[in-house]
Amino acid sequence: MTPCLPGDLTPTDDAPTPHDIALALAAQIHPDAAPRDVIASFDLRRQAAPRFGYRGSGGPVTVVARSLHARLYGLPTAPSPLPTALDELLQALGTARDGDQRQAVLAQLAEQLRNAAQILEWARDNARQLPAPVWEWLRDATDTTRHLANGLDSVRPSFSAPQPSAAPLPPPAPAPPHAAPARR
After folding, report:
1. How far is Cα 105 from Cα 86, in angstroms, rounded to an integer?
2. Which of 16, 37, 70, 92 could form an S-S bond across to 75 if both were Cys, CB 3.0 to 4.6 Å?
3. Is 158's pLDDT higher than 60?
4. Average pLDDT, integer, range 163-171
5. Which residues are paired to 40 by β-bridges?
6. Sign of the torsion formed by the C-alpha atoms of 78, 80, 86 and 89
7. β-strands 39-42, 57-60: how paired?
8. Could you give the 3-state DSSP secondary structure of residue 51?
9. Cα–Cα distance between 35 and 63 in angstroms, integer?
10. Confidence of residue 70 (pLDDT cuts 50, 70, 90)
11. Using CA atoms, how far apart are residues 59 and 44, in angstroms rounded to an integer?
12. What distance separates the 2 farthest-apart alpha carbons in the chain?
């Protein structure tokens, strides 16, 4: 890999990706540590803190790696749209700094739950010769997943500015009976 000299912001073909940087940062903890499990935190020496307004930062190492990659190679540092993978969405929640960002994460989670409900419905409708208890379990799981998504839509505004009194929450969905799937 060609080293990147300070001031040289030209990416090369063999430049590390944000994922490469995240892996290297995680390896500082343990060679087998996954980047999603590592949190980075940066702070200032006591003597330097007043010069920089006592500011520190941190978060999931993957977010730090993306920012570091962008700064090293002169790429835009604007926040990217919310991820769709649930583990990345969880990481985004860890770096959400205000109510609007938290609401956006919850809105994305509700959308992912709706997608999950569609997948469950597809499985129920397209599986061949499902035993009745399995079909009913899939139906209940689909309904519960949709109920969770709608509930998130209802409670999402609670994560913005404090509200004087909250509207009553929708009742939680009853847990579907846990029937053991029949063997074929």
Report:
1. 10
2. 70
3. yes
4. 59
5. 59
6. positive
7. antiparallel
8. helix
9. 10
10. confident
11. 16
12. 71
